[in-house]
Write a structure and sequence with these properties.
- The chain has three helices and six strands.
- The protein is of the alpha+beta class.
- The protein has a six-stranded antiparallel β-sheet with strand order 1-2-3-4-6-5, with helices on one face.
- A hairpin with a 7-residue loop joins strand 5 and strand 6.
- Helix 1 packs antiparallel against helix 2 and helix 2 runs antiparallel to helix 3.
- It is globular.
- The N terminus is likely disordered.
Length: 172
């Protein structure tokens, strides 16, 4: 389902600002950084080249640090591949439709992994309706919608841009 809710149905609400906010924009949040039981990683993409592979590599490293990879079985491997695909789709959409991504945030607890991609674009991501599998292009948000528990867009009043977020179940 397409949504503009800033938080998922469980509505954990905004997480308190802690040491994560003090990390320089060009550095990943250390793997040990935890916000209320959530592990958090951040990557600045502003001005970077090869953004989509960079984002996928960053996500893969986070999944390795968090124990999702190497996967113990097919279900765990599929869950990790879904995360990498959603990261690719959200970052690609920011490249194609929103002047490029600024940051990628990944956070994980024992149940949910949240992906956030911020950009300077004014557009609203939506799945193509009706979805036509045979047509080239336009499948990104349809894929995100199908793979994720939920997704949405956060806008800050008076600030250009947005953050597109998506949440996936942690492997069991």
């Amino acid at each position: 389902m397409s949504t503009t809710r800033p938080y998922s149905p469980g509505d954990r609400g905004p997480e308190p600002e802690v040491a994560v906010a003090a990390v320089p924009a060009d550095q990943a949040v250390p793997a040990a950084t935890v916000r209320q039981g959530r592990q958090v990683r951040r990557l600045s993409l502003n001005g970077a080249s090869g953004i989509v592979p960079l984002a996928r590599d960053f996500a893969r490293q986070a999944l390795q640090a968090w124990g999702w990879l190497p996967a113990a079985g097919a279900d765990q491997r599929a869950a990790a591949e879904d995360v990498l695909l959603v990261v690719s789709e959200l970052v690609t959409n920011a490249c194609l439709h929103a002047e490029g991504p600024d940051e990628l945030w990944l956070s994980s607890d024992s149940k949910v992994l949240r992906i956030e991609v911020s950009d300077r674009g004014a557009g609203q991501p939506t799945p193509r309706t009706p979805h036509r599998a045979g047509r080239p292009g336009g499948h990104g948000m349809f894929i995100v919608q199908r793979l994720c528990l939920d997704w949405g867009v956060v806008r800050t009043p008076g600030v250009s841009g947005k953050t597109v977020w998506a949440e996936l179940s942690a492997p069991v």
